[in-house]
Design brief:
With 522 residues, the protein is of the alpha/beta class. It folds into three domains: 3-98; 108-258, Alpha-Beta Plaits (2-Layer Sandwich), CATH 3.30.70; 275-521, TIM Barrel, CATH 3.20.20. The protein is 52% helix and 19% strand. It has helices spanning 11-40, 45-55, 61-98, 108-122, 139-146, 148-165, 192-202, 233-249, 260-281, 318-327, 331-346, 362-366, 370-378, 392-397, 399-411, 443-449, 453-468, 481-487, 512-521; strands spanning 127-136, 170-176, 179-187, 208-210, 213-215, 219-226, 255-257, 285-294, 300-311, 314-316, 355-359, 386-391, 415-421, 438-441, 472-476, 494-496. The strands form three sheets. An eight-stranded mixed β-barrel has the order 8-9-11-12-13-14-15-16, surrounded by five helices. A five-stranded mixed beta sheet has the order 2-3-1-6-7, with helices on both faces. The protein has a two-stranded antiparallel sheet with strand order 4-5. Helix 5 crosses helix 6 (148-165) and helix 10 (318-327) crosses helix 11. The protein starts with 10 loop residues before the first helix and ends with a helix.
Length: 522
């Protein structure tokens, strides 16, 4: 790509170029003037000028005139050098402004500029502009495991491999982080779009050699087309980005085309985002609680606090609330509201020795202010018995930091429970390094175990290992008597589910003696 055709907004460079050209012009003009005068008067101008100064030495003009002559020549040479140097500097500045330093590929600014040019050209033709967002799967694991230098090398090699499969009418760019963008032009209704996606997918077939280590990476691909999905740079970038995240959520597909349904989800997400911040400040969120009971005695050992948001009659999923809070930067405010509210309300119904379990997201748990915020809040609620539920994904993000955080929480008399155990990436062997009090086995395991002997063996193995490590087990998602009967073999464990009580607000909790009778009778 010709750097001269790229836009430049650097006014300093423009002024420097203008000044250098003026210097050059003045020097050249002076020399040309002397030459013209020589020819015009048919004299050896310099020789005559020299003789004139010899005849009138008392004028002392010889040194002055020849000084001006040498200054003109020097200025001309200097002007030429300045023009060349500034041109070289501008090329370097332009390259760094429009190209990625790691991969050498066009960056976001240049990609958007090229996309804008392609869209303008497409308006006068029958071309379809294809915009593809590509994101590496689990790239953070590479950085955390092998270091950021290895991560940068992987990015560089991925970029080189992508650049090797694009053709003349296609551009590959790096947007930043582990995201790449590909822009292509095709005839309308062309099947070549799918061919391009297939070429992109071949880039992940062979592992990458990173400092002697073989690393395989997957891609999540989002595709948007113009004019179907947008006619501006912003619209197409948003559409392709949205499709890419949809592909990342759906593990069964690697490439996802933008659809109106995805667009509606994005619009709805923006709508919720704009109202969540106000909902936190106005206490429009509320909590419900579900008891966690002993499988032997039926005693209520604790309650899990679950967030609810009733927005214009629509109940918003708790996972959506947490995700939105993180996206709009109010995760810390949301956590403080959650912990304060849970401790205030639980004081009205939680009995002696019972705990209150609170879900903590990965980002909240690893936030640098998490411990200080927790301590500040629990200091205002003396005698509280808290357990934080963290997911397995929290463990793999930074295992050493997780160990330190759990130990620090233990010093504050706050216990930790691993939620949805078995669905993430942690191994049972990691449990021995963690000072956790409980693991909560994901509900899908229980659902399968009642009908599949192999799943039942897996469930049994998890419970057995946890008990041998002195870690309590919580079985969640108990909805039927069949599931309750299956769990009897693992006594004693904790149980949680709709069979005993649906999540209810604080003042509508089922009396303990009713739940105790239900457990003992069944």
């Amino acid at each position: 790509m010709n750097l001269k055709t790229l836009p430049s907004n650097n006014q300093s460079n423009v002024r420097m170029q203008r000044r250098s050209k003026v210097d050059l012009l003045l020097g050249v003009s002076f020399i040309i003037t002397m030459i013209i005068l020589s020819f015009a008067f048919d004299i050896e101008f310099v020789e005559s000028l020299y003789q004139l100064t010899r005849d009138h030495e008392d004028w002392e003009l010889d040194e002055l005139i020849f000084s001006f002559l040498w200054i003109a020549i020097t200025a001309t040479i200097y002007g030429i050098r300045r023009v060349l140097d500034i041109r070289t500097i501008n090329k370097e500045i332009t390259f760094h402004a429009y190209y990625d330093s790691i991969t050498g590929l066009p960056n976001r600014s240049l990609a958007q500029y090229q996309l804008e040019k392609s869209l303008y050209s497409a308006q006068r033709s029958s071309l379809t502009i294809c915009v593809i967002f590509l994101d590496l799967d689990n790239f953070k694991d590479v950085n955390d495991t092998y270091g950021h230098d290895s991560g940068d090398l992987l990015i560089k090699k991925v970029g080189k491999r992508l650049a090797s499969i694009v053709r003349n009418n296609e551009i590959v760019a790096r947007l930043g982080g582990d995201e790449f963008l590909i822009i292509a032009e095709f005839p309308k209704n062309s099947a070549n779009i799918q061919t391009l996606i297939s070429r992109i997918e071949t880039c992940r077939e062979e592992p990458f050699d990173i400092n002697g280590i073989s690393i395989s990476v997957g891609f999540s691909i989002g595709v948007a087309l113009s004019p179907q999905h947008g006619t501006s740079v912003h619209e197409l970038m948003v559409a392709a980005d949205s499709a890419m995240y949809e592909a990342k959520k759906n593990k069964l597909i690697s490439a996802c085309y933008y659809t109106d349904e995805i667009g509606k989800k994005i619009v709805e997400r923006y709508r919720l985002s704009s109202q969540l911040k106000q909902a936190i400040k106005s206490n429009n969120l509320y909590l419900v609680y579900q008891p966690i009971v002993c499988s032997v005695s039926g005693d209520i050992k604790g309650y899990e606090a679950l967030t609810r948001w009733n927005l214009d009659g629509t109940h918003i999923n708790p996972e959506v609330i947490i995700s939105l809070a993180e996206d709009i930067g109010v995760s810390e405010d949301f956590f403080e509201w959650l912990l304060n509210t849970a401790l205030q309300e639980s004081a009205l119904f939680v009995g002696y020795g019972q705990f209150i379990a609170i879900n903590v997201s990965v980002r909240q748990f690893l936030d640098t202010s998490f411990l200080s915020n927790t301590k500040h809040i629990i200091d205002k609620h003396l005698g509280c018995n808290i357990e934080f539920e963290i997911t397995e994904s929290s463990l793999i993000v930074d295992f050493k930091e997780t160990i330190n955080k759990i130990n620090a929480l233990s010093a504050l008399n706050v216990k930790v429970m691993i939620d949805d155990f078995g669905t993430g990436y942690s191994s049972l062997s990691r449990l021995k390094h963690l000072n956790v009090d409980k693991i909560k086995i994901d509900r899908e395991f229980l659902s399968d175990a009642c009908h599949d002997p192999k799943s039942a063996k897996i469930y049994e193995a998890i419970v057995d290992i946890a008990h041998k490590l002195d870690i309590n087990v919580v079985a969640e998602g108990i909805e039927t008597l069949e599931q309750r009967a299956f769990l009897k073999q693992f006594n004693p464990i904790y149980m949680q589910g709709y069979l005993f009580q649906k999540p209810q607000i604080s003042r509508e909790q089922t009396p303990e003696h009713i739940i105790r009778k239900m457990v003992i009778d069944h």
